[in-house]
Amino acid sequence: MKDIARILLVVALGFLNGCGSSPMNFTMTGTWVFSLKPAASASQVIQLTADLTQINDSFFGQVTLTGDAAACGINAQMSGTVNGDSVALQIMQNQTTLTFKGKTNATLNSSAGSYTATGGDCIQNGGTGTWTGFLQPPNSSSFEAKSHQ
After folding, report:
1. Which of 109, 113, 117, 140 is the most buried if burial means most Cβ atoms within 10 Å?
2. Could you give the C-alpha distances from 43 to 26, 38, 129, in angstroms and in order?
3. CA 90, 134, 32 angle in degrees (round to 5)?
């Protein structure tokens, strides 16, 4: 009887150990807020919000531009990849492309780096700068139950 109890204890501890040691699966999916500081004019911060979806190591989504960045409209597209702590992003609007390179933290909810703008008259007409971004925490109020009439 003692042997059966010992075996059950070992099996139970094995399950608990397996549950505790499994790696977390973090993702960049969600609403991101980015701030871009052009090197030529650090006082003109460009703000944008991106609703990203991550599939494997790639992500994509719709970007909403604000302020001076919205000179060619408020919508753009973002795509990118994440590999370990390295992140590469690209925003495209009309003929303008912003290419971002940077690092992200272990939980994929904060990142920063540098960018280069190429071509076109939108977002930033050429130039370089730095960027920061963070994943907004989910808004619990958006999950309120609605009554049916």
Report:
1. 117
2. 33, 8, 12
3. 60
User: For the chain, what is the domain count?
Assistant: 1
3-state secondary structure 48-66: EEEEEEEECCEEEEEEEEE
Q: Which residue has the tokens 């700068």?
A: 129
Q: Identify the domain containing residue 116 by its residue range.
A: 30-137
102-142: pLDDT as tens digits = 999 999 899 999 999 887 777 766 789 999 999 998 763 43
Cα 47 from Cα 37, distance rounded (Å): 9
Domain of 125, CATH number, reads 2.40.128.120
Is the CB of residue 74 less than 8 Å from the CB of residue 64?
A: yes
For the chain, how big is the Rg over CA atoms in Å? 22
